[in-house]
Structure formats: structure tokens, C-alpha cells
Amino acid sequence: MKIIKKAIVTLLKQLDLGSAIAVRLTKYTGKSKTFVHPKHLLSPNPWFMKFIERSDIVLDLGCGYGQNSLKIAGKAKKVLGVDFDFNLLKLAIISANQKKIRNAKFENLDLEQKLSFEDKLFDKIILLDVLEHIKKRDRLLNETKRVLKPKGLAIIGVPNSKTSWKKFQRSAGLCSFSDPDHKIEFSEHSIKKLLSDHNLKIVHFEYDAYDTPLRGLFDIIGAVSLILYKMTLNWRLRLARNYPNEASGFRIVVSK
């Protein structure tokens, strides 16, 4: 039975390649001038934008190719995106120049080390899909608190380890991480405890889209038709609200 499970999981996990294919297709189909995941093309106002103010100075930790930073720049006073990957930062800078965005800057930074910023500098700090990639998570959260202003907010997104699809993968004896670079994934209890242990108060908590092994196929749909992609994403978000244990991740806003 376990051999059959393993074969099924191995086959289904191949669908994850669809996400990487979709990133390239968005450029080849003319939806973007650079390689970008179709989710970044859906709206200029993703879920966290309602927490951004016009006067904010924002730090985007693990900014990647800058898609969130550039959206934030359209509303905030200033945004600084940092990442360890030089190639991704180059793409971020190219995108900022193409869009003539002047209030977004990008720097190379290792998030496993102490942040090179003075205390209480930022109004908002973004940690979307970051904590699960970091070994020294306690240090990063302490550093986040240090550079965050007294009334500032940290906006966090992490993956859920307890979905049925994740459990099925583990029952087959395979790794269930949604990214091979992940050092950890979280249950709702474990991420809430981690934040509480660092005296970070949760002021907003919601669930990401429903977890499914078909997400790679949905991403390819997005590279071809953003309308159909938005429909499938909204459907997955509705499912996650009805079945929160099956949400692919958690969207959290915390204060000091």
C-alpha cells in the first residue's frame, strides 16, 4: 500500500513543475516584461496592502524579484527590498526602472545575519514566504522587532504543514515541503506559539488558498488566462474559509 501511495504522490508532485513553467509563460505570452508568477499580475492591491499607509517606510525582507515591493511603492512613502539572491535583485531593479518607480530601492542582505539597520526605523516590515527559509528564525524575529517602530506592524505569510495533501505525502514516506529550500513548515498552533514567544501580538489572522496538488496546473492556467486564474484562486480562497485546516498557508499581521 505504501508503495502505491509513494507512486501516486511522486506523480502528483511532478505537477509542481507547472508553477515554474507558468513563471516563464507569463513573459512568453506577453503578460509581463519579465519572468513573474501569475499571482503577481492579478491585482495591484494584494491582501496586505490595506495595512500600508501613505506615510510608511517599509522593509520587504526576502523581496525576491521585487513584485511586492513595487506594489507597496505605489502607496507607501518608501520601500526597501532586501534579498540574498543577486540575480533576483537585478530583476527587481530592472522592473523598477521599467515602471519608473523611484521610491523603491533594493539591497543585498543575508537574513541569517543581524540586520544592518538602526533601531525603530520602519513602519511596516514584510516577511512573506520568508520564515520557512530561515534557519535562525528566532534571530530574524528579534531583529524584526528591533528595527520596527513602536506602533509598527510586521506582515507575515507562512505555509501550513497540516493540510490533507501534506499529510498524505508524509504518509507515503516523502517530504511534504512545498519548496525544497524550506527548513520548516508550520501548523496554526506552532506559528502562533512562535510569535507569542517573541512577544509579537497577532492583530490580524486569515487563511490562504486551499491546498491542492493541482496548483501547478492552475498556475499554468494563469499564464494563459488571468480571468480563469482569478476564478480558480477565488474558489480556493472560499474553500479555505470553509475548511481552514486545508489552507495552504497563513496570513498574519503582528505588532510589538
What's the count of strands? 7
Q: What is the name of the CATH class?
A: Alpha Beta
Spell out the helices and strands N to C: HHEHEHEEHEHHEHHE
Overall shape: it is globular
How much strand content do the residues show?
A: 15-25%
Distance between the termini: 49 Å
Low-confidence stretches: none
Helix content range: 25-40%
The average pLDDT score comes to 94
CATH superfamily: Vaccinia Virus protein VP39
In total, the number of domains comes to 1
Strand order of the largest sheet: 3-2-1-4-5-7-6
How many helix segments? 9
Q: The CATH topology is what?
A: Rossmann fold
Quick one: biggest sheet?
A: 7 strands, mixed
Q: Helices and strands: which structural class?
A: alpha/beta
User: What is the assembly state of the chains in this entry?
Assistant: single chain
For the CA atoms, what is the radius of gyration? 18 Å
Which CATH architecture is right? Answer: 3-Layer(aba) Sandwich
Task: Please characterize this protein's 3D structure.
It is a single chain. By secondary structure, the chain is an alpha/beta fold. It has one domain: Rossmann fold, CATH 3.40.50.150. The protein has 9 helices and 7 strands. The chain has a 7-stranded mixed β-sheet with strand order 3-2-1-4-5-7-6, sandwiched between helices. The model has no long low-confidence stretch (mean pLDDT 94).
